[in-house]
Amino acid sequence: MILPIVAYGDPVLKKEGTEISKDYPNLNELIENMFETMYNAMGVGLAAPQIGLPIRLFLVDTSPFAEDEDLADGEGDALKDFKRVFINATILEEEGDEWAFNEGCLSIPDVREDVFRQPKITIEYFDENFKKHTESYSGLIARVIQHEYDHIEGVLFTDKLSSFKKRLIKGKLLNISKGKINVDYKMRFPNQKKKR
Predict the structure, then answer these.
(1) The domain that contains 171 carries what CATH number?
(2) Is residue 133 part of a domain?
(3) In this structure, is the dihedral angle defined by the CA atoms of residues 65, 147, 159 and 55, taken in order, positive or negative?
(4) How many domains does the chain have?
(5) Is 148 known to be catalytic?
(6) Structural domain contains residue 192
(7) 3-state class of 101 per DSSP?
(8) Which residue has the higher pLDDT, 192 or 49?
(9) Does 151 count as an annotated binding residue?
């Protein structure tokens, strides 16, 4: 089932997510719905806060990036096959010199800005079967994970921009929060009432 994506301005996007257990209600169905929602919106990652749930769950599928001609040798293969569910994730380490990449977000449509992040991460998480992993990633995979991880920490990519950049996009962000934007996927705006 395709779920509405929560738009910029909704308080749930600023909440730190709470950990969940393997007994979380309908977890497998939730994960399936999140993948369907993400693919429908042409995303490469989706975090639970983006569908209105303040929990530590996000998923990533970097295969759309695999077609990019500007990739380092071998990176395309890694991106093509990278599909993961991250539950109760903790980034243990970020290392290397920060690099800029133009990021966007399904909750903030039509806004793209360069964001600086470190290129290598080590992350501890549980997969959808609640098997624990500690893994290291670099490059675009690390970046997508960092972006989605920020969501479960209550941080948006726009929070990482300079004051000047924030002023430049202030009007756009206000319009998004008011629903004054055309998107080709389902969204829920902060001023809309939740449907029961």
Answers:
(1) 3.90.45.10
(2) yes
(3) positive
(4) 1
(5) yes
(6) no
(7) strand
(8) 49
(9) yes
